[in-house]
């Protein structure tokens, strides 16, 4: 360590990641940690945990669309594949096949779901825009009908019930509080991973490909390879979120990967905002609240109409979702404060000039 001229040791440099931490980040983290301590089991699981793992699945879509410019409608399908695989290789009460312990079934389920997402990437990366959307939607629909019609492996339209949750360290992780904290840990790690990747060389290259793929190809970058890897990363995130999804419900069926849940993930991501990894979680909170309390506003059958109207209203006002509305409101408040202070200053100067001072 070198010493300064005054004899004092220089202060160590602050790590770059610490410079990005704001007081509001700490407050949000403290709130999320303390939330199950004051919330009922219903609010802990049905609202809190469900918002977190739906946000994780929507985060995988945000990673593809926000950083890669690829809107995929198969992320819920990938999550469902992970759920199906943990039921096929693990234990269930309706159609047991392999009966592996959970510690062996979970890794193989994640690997197969990630490989499936990689295959989707290989198929879809050669297209763009509406064609990518239609290809991924077609894959999702095909997976739904395949699961519904296959009885030997996927048990047809009934699917699998009685899926056990993880048990370890002396506790049942499907109990309300442990399940919430497990979901929070997965959501936090997924969020930090996406933030890190966005700032890495791979993430910056992926964003450059999003902005101008032809130029990046001319510079010698393998555009399709980067896009396929992005699908694999997004598939890994969606697969982990899918495991939490089936553990909360204790079952997986073709309804898990039906067109409705597939579109729900798109709605969650777009409502929250595709420009920042926190957007999907904001959208998930709004979506889950509306889904659980729509019966108090309208009939449950009209929920899709309600969420569709909210979706249209937010997108028409702000294409960047709720995050865009927040930034727009913040900018207007700052502009109003600046204009107000400028106006007061101009008024004071004018008063002084008119009075000869």
TrEMBL record:
Localization in the cell: Cell membrane
Membrane topology of the entry: Multi-pass membrane protein
Residue stretches spanning the membrane: 26-45, 51-69, 76-94, 100-123, 130-147, 179-198, 219-248, 305-326
Keywords: Cell membrane, Membrane, Transmembrane, Transmembrane helix
Organism superkingdom: Bacteria
Classification via InterPro entries: ABC_transp_permease, LivM-like
Name of the protein in question: Branched-chain amino acid ABC transporter permease
Organism expressing this protein natively: Dongia sedimenti
């Amino acid at each position: 360590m070198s010493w300064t001229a005054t004899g004092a040791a220089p202060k160590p440099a602050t790590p770059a990641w610490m410079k990005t931490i704001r007081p509001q980040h700490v407050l949000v983290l403290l709130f999320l940690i303390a939330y199950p301590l004051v919330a009922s089991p219903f609010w802990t699981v049905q609202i809190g945990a469900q918002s977190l793992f739906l946000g994780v699945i929507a985060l995988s879509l945000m990673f593809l669309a926000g950083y890669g410019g690829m809107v995929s409608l198969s992320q819920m399908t990938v999550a469902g594949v992970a759920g199906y695989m943990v039921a096929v290789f693990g234990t269930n009460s309706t159609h047991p096949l392999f009966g592996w312990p959970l510690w062996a079934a979970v890794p193989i389920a994640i690997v197969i779901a990630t490989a499936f997402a990689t295959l989707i990437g290989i198929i879809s990366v050669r297209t763009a825009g509406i064609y990518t959307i239609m290809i991924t939607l077609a894959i999702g629909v095909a997976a739904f009908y395949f699961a519904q019609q296959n009885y030997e492996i996927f048990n047809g339209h009934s699917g699998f019930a009685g899926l056990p949750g993880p048990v370890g360290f002396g506790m049942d992780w499907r109990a309300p509080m442990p399940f919430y904290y497990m979901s929070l840990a997965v959501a936090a790690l997924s969020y930090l991973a996406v933030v890190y990747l966005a700032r890495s060389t791979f993430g910056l290259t992926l964003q450059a490909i999003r902005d101008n793929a032809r130029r990046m190809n001319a510079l010698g970058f393998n555009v399709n390879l980067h896009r396929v890897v992005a699908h694999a990363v997004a598939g890994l995130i969606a697969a982990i979120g899918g495991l939490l999804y089936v553990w909360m419900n204790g079952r997986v069926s073709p309804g898990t990967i039906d067109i409705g849940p597939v579109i729900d993930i798109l709605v969650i991501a777009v409502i929250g905002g595709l420009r920042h990894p926190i957007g999907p979680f904001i959208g998930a909170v709004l979506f889950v609240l509306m889904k659980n309390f729509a019966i108090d506003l309208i009939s449950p059958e009209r929920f899709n109409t309600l969420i569709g109207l909210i979706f249209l209203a937010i997108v028409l006002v702000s294409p960047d979702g709720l995050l865009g509305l927040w930034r727009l409101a913040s900018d207007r408040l700052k502009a109003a404060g600046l204009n107000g202070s400028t106006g007061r200053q101009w008024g004071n100067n004018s008063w002084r000039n008119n009075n000869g001072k």
